Amino acid sequence: MTTTTSSSTSSPPPLLHTYKVPRHTPLNRIFAVVYTTAIFSLFVHHFINLLHSSSTTTFLLHFTLLFSDGILSFMWATTQAFRWRPIHRTVYTENLSQVISSRDYPKLDVFICTADPYKEPPMGVVNTALSVMAYDYPPDKISVYISDDGGSELTLFAFMEAAKFAAHWLPFCKVNNVEDRSPAVYFSSGHYTPTTQTEELKMMYDTMKMKVESVVERGSVADEYIKTDEQREAFNKWTAEFTRQNHPTVIQVLLENGKDTDITGLEMPNLVYVSRQKSKASHHHFKAGALNVLLRISATMTNAPVILTLDCDMYANDPSTPLQSLCFLADSKMSKYAYVQFPQRFHGINKNDIYGGENKRLYQINPVGMDGLAGTSYVGSGAFFRRRAFFGGPSSYVSAEKPELNPDYAADKVIHSEVVLKMAHSVASCEFENGSKWGHKIGFRYGSLVEDYFTGYQLNCEGWDSVFYHPDRAAFWGDTPISFDGSLSQNKRWSVGTLEVAFSKYTPIIFGTKARGILMGLAYSHYAFWGTWCIPITVYAFIPQLALLNGVSPFPKVSDPWFYLYVFLILGSYMQDCLDFMSMGGTFQRWWNDQRMWLVRGISSYLFASIDFLAESFGVSSFGFNITSKVVDDEQNKHYEQGVFEFGVASPLFVPLTMTSIISFVAFSVGVTRVILGNEKMEEILIQLVLSGFWMVNCWPVYEAMLLRSDRGRMSLKTTIISSILAFALYSVSCCLSFRI
Ligand SMILES: O=c1ccn([C@@H]2O[C@H](COP(=O)(O)OP(=O)(O)O[C@H]3O[C@H](CO)[C@@H](O)[C@H](O)[C@H]3O)[C@@H](O)[C@H]2O)c(=O)[nH]1
Ligand SMILES: [Mn+2]
After folding, report:
1. Which domain holds residue 707?
2. Which CATH number goes with the domain that contains 197?
3. Cα(384)–Cα(308) distance, rounded to whole angstroms?
4. Which of 469, 497, 538, 675 is an S-S bond match for 450, by CB 3.0 to 4.6 Å?
5. Which residues bind Mn(2+) (predicted)?
6. Largest Cα–Cα distance of the chain, in whole Å?
7. In this structure, are 593 and 449 located in the same domain?
8. What percent of the chain has pLDDT over 70?
9. Are residues 343 and 383 both part of a single domain?
């Protein structure tokens, strides 16, 4: 590896961070050239076939294959941006004290979003909050803001309890230098030595948990739990008219630095619960809207120059993460860097990651590639931002409507004071954003269901750079969907969101390229055009098989030199993909499942997302943010642990997959039978047989779920019947077409 340091002046300041470019990078570039030549040859082959088409149907068949390969090639080209100049960074927190003393550390505002107490259990959110409140960072500099889009008194109750528990938990962590600062993790880890103190604390935690869970189960806060007038006043806001979609702003300061102390008398961080005003009459812009409200409320209260955004399920796993981020943010040469993104990593993934929930490419491999260009994308959680980055480009400041919201405003009033609370309420209202720059020029950006991707992209386009830092000890651990349907739905939402950007005036291929050059344009296009993968994947899921059944072979025979071009293109891209995956610490089995999920998403998530996107473009429907459930029942969990797929729900997302598993099976069997009977030559249909066989191997869990299983996770009869009818219909259509060949 070649090492480059980013600090080099005459009397060198202490090193805060360095990066390395892997040695094999030039090989990637050579391979890119070779592969590009192969792709061009493939197009020559396709054009020759088009010119020689004997009928409209064969012309259409070859055109479809050409179009699909065109999309595959485009998507392949976009991945080259990630392979061009990947970099791996290291930080030196031990040198930080020579650059900045802890007294001068910047204040840190932490934003935690939650949106549904039933899909996102409040105890999970509480653990996330406690884990960051216990960071190794001056407590008087930390403020944690909870955004509750579920508008739930249950969540508020949980946080009232958490505030009390924090007074015990925070000093305990500091004194004992606890590693796991999420109490749920600590107490279930078995790593702690049971002493009277830990046992007492555990009891306290368990009591809080029981109380909160019983309140959630009951669906309301029982009177006996409301102890003070202040609490009564807070819960009184939940009147009969208060609904999730329609309610006034609730802001509750639960802990106040300078006033509240822990049991050892030390200061505590601020803890503020926020449920922004909701009204059916105004669009609330999902998570981006929630984050913008927190940006404004926090501006009026603490206005920290550094902001950490977290999803409710992403608890902090390393107390030193803020210091690691400071290694970049406190470096005066990095003032053009908008954020430091830590990877999203997930606990509880099964051994071979059957649903590809780790998303290694999205969260670990690609960011390393973008980091070496102009900056990594923002992935919604685990990013430390400069507040200034939300107000225009590094050299083109955009001021907010009110001076109190600007990053240079000195928030020095007591956060509990009437004047501050009044201001905070006013900036949390639905009307505040009407006709303003929020969501467009300022703050987190609106217009895409993947507000994270879109916001990071916009910031990069404005001229900000960004850092990806992947420490050995995970900075955060979160939940990834462990149900098949949940995982596919999540990917569907992401694809809808990225398609919204792909076909907007901000399309990365043009807008991004103009702003940050072709490589960044390609990298952002890769995500934007994710959804278009549904075209080639659907085509390859059905066309070669249907053609085989109809005795048509659109692919070269084994004796044809073009055959080897296909072999090279397919093996070349799969092998490179596998190497990328394994060089980032992945196993072969995980890679295998990951490639399977790519195929599966192609004919489910991406396909349905594209259809939804078209429907929305024609004004037929509109989409929402389906929150991923963080709760699973025992049987589901058992299946997942065993690596068994969960097909239990009758989801339309499973239909095309089931159709291709039926059609591939029939095509493969018919093809092999014909070869054995001597009606067909193996060398003529080899590519089609291999493609059908490949789908069959990948569809193994589908066959099991349809035919072999009897548990709750088997394929529902409805899905099997609908898929069989549709598969037969598709075959019939293909027969009608093939008569014309
Ligand atoms: O109207 C909403 C919807 C969601 N959320 C919060 O957004 C977060 C992410 O939602 P989740 O259902 O967990 O979605 P994921 O697909 O797991 O999240 C990924 O994708 C999202 C964009 O689609 C990003 O916002 C996330 O950071 C990223 O982890 C959660 O904390 C939610 O509480 C809100 O605050 N308001
Ligand atoms: Mn999530």
Report:
1. 512-739
2. 3.90.550.10
3. 4
4. 497
5. 287, 311
6. 89
7. no
8. 98
9. yes
Q: How far apart are the first and last CA of the chain?
A: 57
Domain boundary among 461, 480, 499: 480
Q: For residue range 227-253, what is the model confidence (pLDDT) as tens digits?
A: 899 899 999 999 999 999 999 999 999
Whether residue 633 is found in the same domain as residue 528: yes
Decide if 130 is inside a domain.
yes
Q: Which helix (H) or strand (E) holds 181?
A: none
Kindly tell me if the per-residue pLDDT of 43 is higher than 80: yes
| Measured distance CA(349)–CA(246) in Å, rounded | 37
Q: Judge whether 489 lies within some domain.
A: no
CA separation for the pair 325, 456 (Å, rounded): 17
pLDDT at 191: 77
pLDDT 10s digits, 645-664? 999 899 999 999 999 999 99
> Dihedral, CA atoms, 324, 329, 332, 335, nearest 10 degrees?
150
Band of residue 10 on the pLDDT scale cut at 50, 70, 90: low
- Kindly name the residue from 109, 148, 149, 262 that is annotated as catalytic: 149
Q: What is the model's pLDDT at position 2?
A: 44
- Per the structure block, which two tokens stand in for 349? 């993934």
Q: Give the 3-state secondary structure of residue 303.
A: coil
Look up tokens 């202040």; give the residue: 230
Angle between helices 153-176 and 122-133 (to 10 degrees): 40
471 and 532 together in one domain:
no
Residues 529, 457 share a domain: no
Annotate 202-262 with three-state secondary structure: HHHHHHHHHHHHHHHHHCCCCHHHCCCHHHHHHHCCCCCCCECCEECCEEEEEECCCCCEC
Q: How far is the CA of 235 from the centre of ligand 1 (A)?
A: 26
Residue minimizing CA distance to atom 24 of ligand 1: 380
Which pLDDT value is given to residue 740?
A: 61
**Cα radius of gyration (the chain):** 28
Asked if residues 321 and 310 have their Cβ atoms less than 8 Å apart, the reply is: no
Domain assignment present for 302: yes
Task: Output the pTM of the full model.
Answer: 0.96
Counting the structural domains of the chain, the total is 2
**Per the domain annotation, does 2 fall within a domain?**
no
Q: Residue 89 carries which side chain, given as an amino acid letter?
A: R
Does one domain contain both 696 and 565? yes
Token pair belonging to 629: 């459930």
Residues around the ion ligand 2 (C-beta < 5 A): 311, 628
Q: Clarify whether 149 is annotated catalytic.
A: yes
Q: 633 CA distance to ligand 2 centroid (A)?
A: 18
User: Going by CA atoms, what residue is nearest to atom 25 of ligand 1?
Assistant: 380
Pair (516, 476) in one structural domain = no
CA–centroid distance, 501 to ligand 2, in Å, is 21
For 57-212, list the strands marked E by DSSP: 88-91, 108-114, 142-148
Nearest-angstrom CA–CA distance, 124 and 91: 30
Closest CA to 55 of 556, 587, 597, 738: 738
304/420 same-domain check: yes
